[in-house]
Specification:
Structural class of chain A: alpha/beta
Number of helices of chain B: 18
Shape of chain A: globular
Radius of gyration of chain B: 30 Å
Largest sheet of chain B: 9 strands, mixed
Largest interface: A-B, 67 and 63 residues
Distance between the termini of chain B: 17 Å
Number of strands of chain B: 9
Strand order of the largest sheet of chain A: 5-4-3-6-2-7-1-8-9-10
Shape of chain B: globular
Distance between the termini of chain A: 23 Å
Helix content of chain B: 55-70%
Oligomer: heterodimer
Helix content of chain A: 40-55%
Number of strands of chain A: 10
Chain lengths: 488, 591
């Protein structure tokens, strides 16, 4: 039986034990969740570009965006048969909302309900983009007025491993300085639930604005993301950090033929005229009476792509790199970092969805056991069942070791740490986990055998601390597992 | 601006008068005041969060790339740009003994000293001199490190320096509204400095900057802050300067920004007439005393008039001799109060820190705790510095009061209790004027040696201090199982103990550096004030001696000579009175 099957069996045990009690509802939720797509929350500070990124990932303008603070309610976007939105109220009731599709997203009519009373809105949307993961848009946290001392405590509440409504988190932040005290806060958001480095990815958003929107802003952003990635404090929070120019990504994902034509008209202008027009946002809108594109069209392009996006699109057209709307969209998407992010989500989240979901479910079950009292015998039995799954699931052990490694709790040298992280955490193909360039069966086999002996030696070293011994044993087992799974 | 010329005229006139009456010592004092006034610097701090374009703003305003700008590296050391020729840069570096050295830096190499990767923890400040016409009248632009980095003691310096700043440019880019933290810092700036402008930067890039600027204005008003909002684009300003394009310059917002600096901030500092007017009044009072004594002797032939003046001079000497004791006492009190305040704050911090550690597991949250400790320490230091400054002001006032009262006594005694009420009234008014006059001067002295830029300097001495990470013992990988529980509890307790030790050690070092700085500055300020008051004392001595001599002379003269001299003296007194009236008018305006 695979991991998910074993977890389902435990959930069934729980369901039987809790039948007819207060906890039954929670257990049913956990069971349902195992069959759902992976839940990924997009979290971050106010104005980080969460809704914009969500739209880019879906490829449609569904989450509303605006210049001022916009998203106020946690909103789930999941695949459905038809467009509909349901508000779950704080008092436990639900109500279907009227949905209006506006130019900048889906407007849900609360019909007089107070924002504070709505726990969440669930929007169902018929799109294949939401088939593998349900995306959750969260309101940004901007209030940093809380006393610093309280924040420390709240941030690192003793129960770091409690049940969370989401399986994975994308943390969005604008360029935050490493010396900033709020550096970590910027990646962290209570509304998104707690995450650990195994199920979180950091995104350096609004990458096009770095360096004042210069032509090489994105290259700069990539450099900054690379540096941020190595930050020890950040390593314990998320797997990696990638730059994404959200507005550009959203524009690219939803580019229309008319917009492509608009860029075409701008690109056809003389270089000097075009430069003068694109000097500033104000000039772009109001300048140049002889510009072929009407001012209202220019306002539209500026809103949709930003000044950086407009400049980039025109440059691409001028250099013949974007003859059709499709090629322009593809190029913009690639440069925006959206393709890389999608790839990352596929390997880090989608490919490991069973493990992530199993982990969420087990954490939630532990939580249920703690919150809803049962007779002592039942508690012992269910606890043992949980323990059994934990013990048998090598994937979970891998996650556990990975978390400890990234938190700096396993004293290994830098090379060994890197090797371990790659082996346990990259979630990609075998050769990548082994650090090989290509998937050559003979090389892979050699690397595995060599790795096994190395990690076994580490595990058996008489002076090795317990954490290193366990990590080495897990690594050995992972390698052995790869060996048996290898097609000869 | 009219007031500025009036002050200049008045000072010139006072110098002339002092020269005419042979009081070169008084003339020298007025000249020194005039000199200080001319060279007085208008310090404008450029503050804001990281990466909002503070350095770019300074560069764009000056039209020269002096502050390093980088996409990622941020400014870590304050850079003060003032007028000077030839262009030069110096890094103020603290050595092991806490003394400050000035190291010449090439203008192209400033980046290595001011950005965070410079790896020179002891750099306190970089001073740049530029022959820019904008800076000619004493404007000093200070580029400060981003405010988010509370870990750096420089932020404490920035916050303390706010109090001495003549103007603050608060920079926030137009990509988003003000955040809570920005608003907090803005509020602090506005409460410490009366001239604050909110600069909406990068308006070339953000189409909705007008919306954002309006939102910010609303936010600021809601927070009870009245600020000028200035939209600005460093990039457009740079291009406008390169291509000499006036229209583009207007669009960049630079003219409005310069207007604010030159018309709102600069005149405000230059028009501060308190000190010059007080000095003139003090000088005038001494001249008056001299002539008044002579006039009394001329009008009244009785010999005991001379005796009165004589007695007054002696009394003045006796009373004036009290000031060194008062100064010593006041500074002893000051030093011990400052020390107590520092200890008290550090103790409170340590105890809050311990409470926090008891609620967390340092193995998970040391980093977060460390950041909190840095921030809280910076807060405490800034508060301490502000408190220290206020305490010092009362200390100076105390000495000035003791000092000035006897100085005015001779006039009263000379006139006698039953003399014209009008004259007594004038003398009393003079008495009131003098105490704040002497104190104002004392405080001005302090400002130059203690406030503003100097504040950046000494706090820089703290930047080298870091919290040493506690040794974290075994974070067990075994998360399940029951037997491990007790062991875990024991480990947590041990980790907490070590975390507390690390925190205490850091706070001890901070206390050590600060208390050394406190002792040094108390000694330095005491010396400066001692010189200041000693000069005042010798002036007064000369005044009473001169008054005595004039009175003796008058006593010896015959009737005809007396009549002639009396007319002269009365004419002189009228002239001096006119001068006094002008100075009093200025002082009245200031109040």
């Amino acid at each position: 039986m695979n991991l998910l099957g074993r977890v389902e069996a435990v959930v069934a045990e729980f369901a039987a034990a809790y039948a007819g009690t207060a906890g039954a509802h929670d257990v049913a939720d956990i069971a349902a969740r195992l069959r759902e797509p992976l839940r990924v929350a997009i979290a971050g500070k106010v104005k980080a570009g969460k809704s914009t990124l969500l739209n880019a990932l879906v490829g449609e303008l569904i989450a509303p965006t605006d210049a001022s603070e916009c998203t106020q309610i946690v909103t789930w976007y999941r695949e459905g048969l038809r467009y509909r939105a349901v508000a779950d109220m704080c008092d436990g009731t639900s109500a279907e909302l009227r949905v209006r599709r506006e130019a900048n997203g889906v407007e849900c009519d609360l019909s007089g309900r107070r924002v504070d009373d709505v726990a969440r809105i669930v929007v169902e949307w018929p799109t294949s983009a939401l088939r593998t993961m349900t995306l959750i848009d969260t309101p940004g946290v901007g209030s940093l007025s809380v006393d610093a001392g309280d924040r420390v405590v709240a941030f690192l509440a003793p129960e770091a491993e409690e049940g969370s409504p989401v399986d994975a988190v994308i943390y969005l932040t604008r360029h935050v300085h490493r010396a900033d005290v709020r550096f970590l806060d910027a990646f962290h958001d209570d509304a998104g639930g707690r995450a650990s480095p195994v199920n979180a990815i950091g995104v350096l958003s609004r990458a096009d604005e770095i360096g004042g929107g210069r032509a090489d802003s994105l290259a700069s952003a990539a450099r900054i993301a690379a540096r941020t990635r190595e930050e020890p404090t950040l390593r314990r929070l998320c797997q990696t950090v990638v730059p994404v120019a959200g507005l550009l990504a959203q524009g690219a994902a939803t580019l229309t033929e008319a917009e492509h034509r608009g860029f075409g008209l701008l690109a056809a202008m003389a270089d000097d005229d075009a430069d003068a027009l694109m000097l500033s946002a104000d000039r772009f809108v109001s300048g140049g009476a002889h510009v072929a594109l009407a001012p209202v069209e220019r306002v539209h392009l500026l809103d949709r792509f930003g000044l950086f996006g407009v400049r980039l699109a025109c440059a691409l057209l001028r250099h013949g790199q974007a003859a059709s709307a499709r090629t322009l969209a593809a190029e913009l998407r690639r440069r925006s970092g959206l393709d890389d992010l999608r790839q990352l989500l596929a390997t880090r989240f989608t490919a490991r969805r069973d493990v992530l979901k199993a982990r969420s479910a087990l954490l939630a079950l532990t939580d249920v056991l703690r919150r809803y009292p049962l007779p002592a015998d039942d508690v012992a039995a269910l606890g043992a069942a949980l323990e059994r799954v934990h013990a048998a699931a090598h994937e979970l052990a891998e996650l556990r070791v990975l978390i400890a490694v990234r938190a700096g709790g396993v004293p290994l040298d830098a090379d060994a740490t890197q090797e371990l992280e790659r082996l346990l955490g990259s979630g990609a193909s075998r050769h990548e986990r082994l650090g090989l360039d290509r998937d050559d069966p003979a090389d892979v086999r050699d690397a595995i055998l060599e790795g096994v002996s190395r990690w076994r030696a580490r595990a058996e070293h008489p002076l090795a601390p317990p954490s290193v011994v366990e990590a080495s044993q897990i690594a050995t087992r992972s390698l052995e597992g790869m060996l048996t799974a290898q097609p000869e | 601006v009219d007031e500025t010329t009036e002050v200049d005229d008045l000072l010139a006139l006072a110098v002339k008068a002092a020269h005419a009456y042979g009081r070169l010592d008084l003339a020298a004092r007025v000249e020194a005041t005039a000199r200080r006034r001319r060279s007085s610097e208008t310090v404008v701090l450029v503050v804001g969060e990281f990466k909002q374009g503070k350095s770019s703003l300074v560069n764009a305003v000056l039209g020269i790339d002096v502050c390093p700008v980088d996409d990622d590296l941020a400014t870590a050391v304050p850079t003060a740009v003032h007028h000077g020729h030839p262009p030069a840069a110096h890094a103020c570096v603290g050595d092991e003994d806490g003394e400050e050295r000035r190291v010449p830096v090439s203008l192209d190499a400033i980046a290595g000293w001011t950005t965070e990767n410079g790896d020179r923890p002891a750099v306190r400040r970089v001073d740049v001199a530029l022959p820019s016409p904008l800076l000619e009248d004493g404007l000093v632009l200070v580029d400060t490190p981003g405010a988010g980095g509370l870990t750096s003691a420089h932020l404490a310096g920035t916050r303390a320096a706010l109090m001495f700043a003549d103007g603050v440019l608060f920079v926030s880019d137009a990509s988003a509204e003000l955040t809570e933290t920005e608003l907090k810092l803005l509020r602090e700036a506005a409460s410490r400095c009366s001239r604050v402008a909110l600069v909406e930067s990068k308006i070339d890039l953000h189409p909705s900057w007008r919306v954002i600027a309006e939102l910010d204005r609303v936010h600021a008003r809601a927070a009870g802050i009245e600020v000028v909002v200035v939209p600005f684009s460093a990039r457009l300003r740079g291009l406008a300067m390169t291509h000499d394009d006036d229209a583009l310059d207007d669009e960049s917002g630079a003219p409005a920004l310069l207007d604010w600096l030159l018309d709102d901030v600069m005149p405000a500092t230059h028009a501060v007439a308190t000190e010059p007017a007080a000095v003139v009044l003090d000088v005038v009072a001494q001249l008056q005393e001299q002539f008044e004594a002579e006039r009394r002797a001329l009008v009244d032939e009785r010999a005991d008039t001379l005796q009165d003046v004589h007695a007054a001079a002696e009394a003045a000497q006796k009373l004036a001799s009290r000031w060194p004791q008062t100064l010593a006492d006041a500074f002893a009190d000051f030093a011990s109060d400052v020390d107590f305040d520092l200890r008290e704050r550090m103790r409170a911090l340590a105890s809050t820190g311990d409470d926090t550690i008891d609620r967390i597991d340092p193995a998970n949250s040391w980093g977060e705790y460390e950041r909190w400790l840095y921030a809280a320490t910076a807060d405490a230091i800034a508060e301490h510095c502000n408190w220290r400054h206020e305490r010092l002001a009362t200390c100076v006032a105390r000495v000035a009061e003791t000092f000035s009262a006897p100085a005015a006594v001779p006039v009263e005694i000379a006139l006698g209790a039953d003399q014209a009420a009008e004259a007594t009234g004038r003398a009393n008014a003079r008495l009131e004027v003098r105490a704040p006059g002497v104190a104002a001067q004392g405080l001005t002295l302090l400002r130059s040696s203690y406030g503003g830029l100097a504040m950046f300097g000494f706090l820089g001495g703290l930047t080298g201090l870091v919290i040493s990470a506690p040794v974290m013992i075994g974070i067990g990988l075994v998360l399940g199982g029951k037997g491990v529980k007790e062991e875990r509890a024991r480990q947590i307790a041990q980790r907490r103990g070590q975390a507390k030790v690390s925190a205490r050690k850091y706070l001890d070092e901070v206390s050590f550096v600060l208390s050394k700085e406190n002792r040094d500055s108390v000694r330095r300020i005491q010396r400066e004030l001692r010189d200041h008051f000693a000069n005042r004392a010798s002036e007064l001595q000369r005044t009473t001696t001169a008054a005595l001599a004039a009175a003796r002379e008058a006593n010896r003269a015959d009737a005809a000579q007396r009549a002639a001299r009396q007319a002269d003296v009365e004419a002189e007194l009228r002239r001096i009175d006119r001068l006094a009236a002008r100075a009093e008018a200025l002082l009245g305006d200031e109040r």
